[in-house]
Write a structure and sequence with these properties.
Blueprint: E1 3-5, E2 10-12, E3 17-35, E4 47-48, E5 54-55, E6 58-59, E7 65-73, E8 83-89, E9 107-112, E10 117-122, E11 131-140, E12 143-153, H1 157-163, H2 169-183, E13 240-241, H3 323-365, H4 367-370, H5 372-414, E14 439-446, E15 455-460, E16 466-470, H6 486-503, E17 509-514, H7 525-530, H8 540-563, E18 578-586, H9 592-604, E19 610-616, H10 629-634, E20 635-638, E21 643-647, E22 654-659, H11 668-683
Parallel strand pairs: 1-10, 16-19, 16-20, 17-18, 18-19
Antiparallel strand pairs: 2-12, 3-4, 3-7, 3-8, 3-9, 5-6, 6-7, 8-11, 9-10, 11-12, 13-21, 14-15, 14-22, 21-22
Helix pairs in contact: 1-2, 3-5, 6-11, 8-9
């Protein structure tokens, strides 16, 4: 069970490699301080913040964002460190809220590397404070514990840092704020022909699944030179959600999130060092030697153009123990690249607009230049400079998009079935796998500045959160009949269920359907016709109660067995394979008991292999009022038509999500499900 802490409460920590996830309704700055037994921080080298994000055993983000994931390896901390304080502050940027009392309460959670939440703390009761110590990890008798602190400071970062015992707190706070401001418009120098793609992070805090510590290695962005916007990536997380995350998308994916890339062990050893993300078959693009200067009358020889561009993209150009893991990390790296490049472009455009407005204000404020030819010339010059800066920024973005598009064209065909679109030829040679994949594709993500470029939205398996396909599409003009809004939602659900069945070994994943009114019979036909469902769709109130009762009993039994350390002593009745429950037309056919069971499955099911896929319109359940708010928040919201509701964890862009549907007229879904059904028959 997850421990939901209140201020002052502590909780034991059973593992030393963890994540601390910060979520807020507005962008916040996250940091951490390392203190001795007396609680004093011995200098600035004991503070991880956006200007210095990495310390032994801990890494924080360089950005202000609504979602943060801090990576912590307690075993890698210096022996003198007995306390790690997690710090949150509102950035001192234009438009940012001045105090926590004006926004929703932020939340801090401690999770394992697999995303399983250990303890959480919602920082309620804040008012005039603009900085707060959220959580504290402290060492007692050789073991680590978590304490919910919630100590706020109306003086902001200066007051917090001074209370931590840091000298020059005001100057240090200004430096952090400047680093955050630079991070809002950061770019990394473009990769040239002499540089391989590489990304670095602290090896001491990396692991098989360590999301959320996004950092960009490179020089700060110069707003007056927006052509330096080609970003490269560091090991980081997936999408976070603006509603979850994605979702957590992120959370990309967020997410919640969307999942996060796995990292491989650094060659630099356990004390930290660079991680080499270069594909083993990658070759640097080399420049040919400069030709000798010919004599004046000698015709110039024809020489090949120098390879000044980046090295050709390679599928699997990332760290990982397997091809699937490298491709997974590469996709998330592309996602981060596009997020940062677009952020640099938008920042440059904003700078150009502000600069032009400032110059025009100066012209208008001077009576001598306000009228006449001098004024016209000044205005034209200001507008010309604005256009020039925007053109430079667009050229830099186009360069980055060209690189990412070339990479996508190489990566997309190489993706395995779990990551591939339904129109990928890999499905034509599909065979039922013998091992479960590390992730699955839920759809595609894109930004308006780069609409043709699609980034696969991958989430880790097993799913940490349930899925909600919102059948209440806000733009009803897309359909002639409002009743048609539910059909694409069901199509999306069927495509996702089929994919999950197809990427798991036979017998290790089952699907059950609750369709109280039978309204989705035609949409579920591919699943029922192929015979891949564990049972026919449950109809009516009795059917709903039966399915929910069996799954609730399964969750209870498995939880008791796991807690008692007797996983092999389960009775023969419950099916212990992973289960996906698809619920259509919620809350039709649900009474109060069924609603309570559904909420229980959404909260407790994922930990013991029961996952929820809800196809519903939230307005249909409006009669329950706020009772169901925790249910909606616990699910990752997806949409059956493109919708910009997901946010990444680095700069918080609103990404447009597109569901992964089977192309019209394609028979690939039926072919895949037929093979799944055959394998399931042989397995039983």
């Amino acid at each position: 069970m997850v421990a939901e802490l209140v201020r002052g409460q502590n909780h034991p920590l059973s593992q030393n490699r963890i994540e601390i996830r910060i979520s807020a309704d507005v962008p916040v700055v996250a940091g951490a301080s390392l203190a001795d037994e007396s609680g004093r921080v011995r200098g600035t080298d004991g503070l991880a913040h956006p200007g210095a994000p990495t310390l032994p055993g801990i890494e924080v983000s360089r950005q202000a964002a609504a979602e943060h994931r801090l990576a912590v390896d307690l075993d890698a901390l210096p022996a003198a460190v007995h306390r790690v304080s997690v710090l949150i502050a509102l950035p001192a940027t234009p438009g940012a809220p001045p105090r926590f009392g004006s926004v929703a309460a932020p939340r801090a959670a401690v999770t394992g590397l697999d995303g399983t939440e250990i303890a959480g703390y919602t920082l309620i009761g804040l008012d005039a404070e603009s900085a707060v110590v959220a959580l504290e990890l402290y060492r007692r008798q050789g073991a680590w514990k978590i304490r919910a602190v919630g100590q706020g400071y109306a003086e902001g970062l200066t007051g917090l840092l001074a209370d931590q015992g840091l000298p020059g707190a005001a100057e240090l706070a200004r430096g952090i704020e400047q680093a955050v401001a630079r991070g809002l418009a950061r770019a990394v120098p473009a990769r040239t022909a002499d540089t391989d793609r590489s990304r670095c992070t602290a090896a001491s805090v990396t692991g098989a699944d360590l999301p959320g510590t996004a950092s960009a290695a490179g020089s700060p962005y110069d707003a007056q030179a927006p052509d330096d916007t080609a970003g490269r990536r560091a090991t980081s997380d997936g999408p976070a959600e603006s509603e979850p995350t994605p979702g957590d998308a992120g959370r990309l994916p967020a997410s919640g999130g969307l999942g996060a890339p796995a990292t491989a062990t650094s060659s630099g050893g356990p004390t930290g060092g660079p991680i080499d993300y270069t594909h083993p078959k990658r070759r640097r693009a080399s420049r040919p030697p400069a030709p000798e200067t010919p004599a004046p009358d000698t015709p110039a020889p024809e020489t090949p153009a120098p390879a000044d561009g980046p090295a050709p993209p390679v599928a699997g150009d990332a760290a990982g123990w397997s091809t699937d893991e490298r491709l997974y990390n590469q996709v998330w790296g592309m996602f981060e690249d596009l997020a940062r490049s677009t952020a640099a472009y938008r920042s440059a455009v904003d700078f150009a607009e502000l600069r032009m407005e400032k110059e025009l204000d100066q012209v208008l404020s001077d009576p001598r230049s306000r009228l006449g030819t001098a004024g016209d010339a000044a205005r034209e010059a200001a507008q010309a400079r604005q256009v020039q800066l925007v053109d430079q920024a667009r050229a830099a973005l186009d360069r980055d998009l060209a690189q990412l598009t070339a990479e996508s064209e190489v990566v997309e065909p190489a993706l395995p079935p779990a990551y591939a679109r339904w129109d990928n030829p890999v499905w034509h040679g599909y065979r039922v796998p013998t091992e479960s994949p590390m992730a699955v594709r839920l759809g595609d993500l894109h930004l308006p500045e780069s609409a043709p470029l699609r980034i696969p939205m991958l989430v880790r398996l097993p799913l940490e959160r349930g899925l909600w396909i919102d059948s209440g599409v806000p733009d009803a003009s897309l359909f002639e009949d409002v009743g048609e809004l539910r059909h694409p939602a069901l199509q999306t659900a069927v495509a996702l269920a089929a994919r999950l069945l197809a990427v798991h070994p036979a017998g290790e994943f089952g699907v059950q359907v609750v369709d109280p009114a039978g309204a989705g019979a035609s949409a579920f036909a591919p699943l029922t016709g192929a015979g891949v469902l564990d049972a026919p769709p449950a109809a009516g109130a009795a059917g709903v109660a039966g399915v929910l009762g069996r799954l609730t009993e399964r969750v209870d039994l498995v939880q008791m067995a796991v807690r008692g350390g007797a996983s092999d002593a389960l009775p023969p009745g419950p099916d212990t394979s992973r289960q996906l429950l698809i619920v259509h037309d919620f809350p039709h056919g649900f009474d109060d008991r069924a609603v309570t069971q559904l909420r229980y499955l959404a909260d407790e099911g994922p930990d013991v292999g029961v996952h929820l896929l809800l196809v519903a319109d939230r307005e249909d359940a409006a009669a329950y009022g706020p009772l169901l708010d925790p249910l909606w928040r616990s699910l990752m919201r997806l949409t059956p038509v493109p919708d910009d509701h997901l946010a990444d964890p680095w700069v918080g862009h609103a990404w447009t999500y597109e569901p992964g549907l089977v192309p019209p007229g394609s028979q690939v879904l039926q072919q895949v499900l037929a093979r799944v059904a055959t394998a399931r028959t042989k397995h039983t």
